[in-house]
């Protein structure tokens, strides 16, 4: 009769040099041909970084750290999607926006960078709602960038254009004062005014 003991060691997620591994012990009583014994017994023990059996509190703490790291990574990626720099060049995302700049959260969740982190729609929605960089609609179905409305975007103006020439476009008598004109990306310029009303007035006069 043959007996064998198999040990498998699985490294778990590490955090600041600490982590856990599990040891699975499978003991099979007989490997003889035609043996019709019971299924092998299996035990699983979780160890901490010191090689000692981990307590429930240690395991729970490690899981919480992993979840928080995921939320932080997801937050950074989502906010990057809606940053001014990305929106100035992400033609696909812009094409998915409605007239109020809202885009379906499902569309965001289907982006490869987001899918690489998670497919949990509830988590994605929760992270979006907690971010000051975006605004989620009341139904929780759509999201849009939460940029100040006192900024308007001028497109197809080369980077080599002097700032004075860009500002000169807004120097008529009825035009509010420009606070700042700055080049963004892909021939786009951001023009900042003092208030939302000033920016709206400029848009009506352009």
UniProtKB/TrEMBL annotation:
InterPro entries the record matches: La_dom_prot, La_HTH, RRM_LARP4/4B, WH-like_DNA-bd_sf, WH_DNA-bd_sf
Superkingdom in the source lineage: Eukaryota
Residue ranges constituting the HTH La-type RNA-binding domain according to the UniProt record: 64-153
N-terminal signal peptide: 1-19
One GO molecular-function entry: RNA binding
Keyword vocabulary terms for this entry: Phosphoprotein, RNA-binding, Signal
Protein name, as recorded: HTH La-type RNA-binding domain-containing protein
Species of the source: Oryzias latipes
């Amino acid at each position: 009769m043959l007996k064998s003991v198999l040990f498998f060691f699985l490294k778990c997620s590490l955090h600041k040099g600490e982590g856990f591994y599990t040891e699975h012990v499978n003991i099979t009583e007989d490997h003889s041909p035609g043996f019709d014994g019971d299924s092998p017994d299996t035990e699983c023990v979780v160890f901490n970084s010191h090689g000692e059996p981990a307590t429930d509190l240690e395991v729970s703490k490690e899981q919480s750290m992993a979840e928080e790291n995921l939320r932080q990574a997801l937050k950074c990626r989502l906010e990057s999607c809606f940053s001014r720099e990305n929106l100035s060049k992400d033609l696909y995302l812009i094409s998915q926006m409605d007239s109020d700049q809202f885009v379906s959260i499902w569309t965001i969740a289907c982006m490869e960078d987001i899918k690489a982190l998670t497919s949990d729609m509830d988590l994605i929605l929760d992270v979006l709602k907690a971010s000051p960089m975006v605004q989620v609609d009341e139904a929780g179905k759509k999201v849009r960038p939460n940029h100040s409305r006192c900024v308007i975007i001028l497109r197809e103006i080369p980077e080599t254009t002097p700032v004075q020439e860009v500002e000169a476009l807004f120097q008529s008598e009825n035009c509010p004062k420009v606070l700042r004109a700055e080049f963004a990306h892909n021939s786009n310029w951001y023009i900042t005014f003092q208030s939302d009303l000033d920016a709206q007035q400029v848009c009506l006069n352009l």
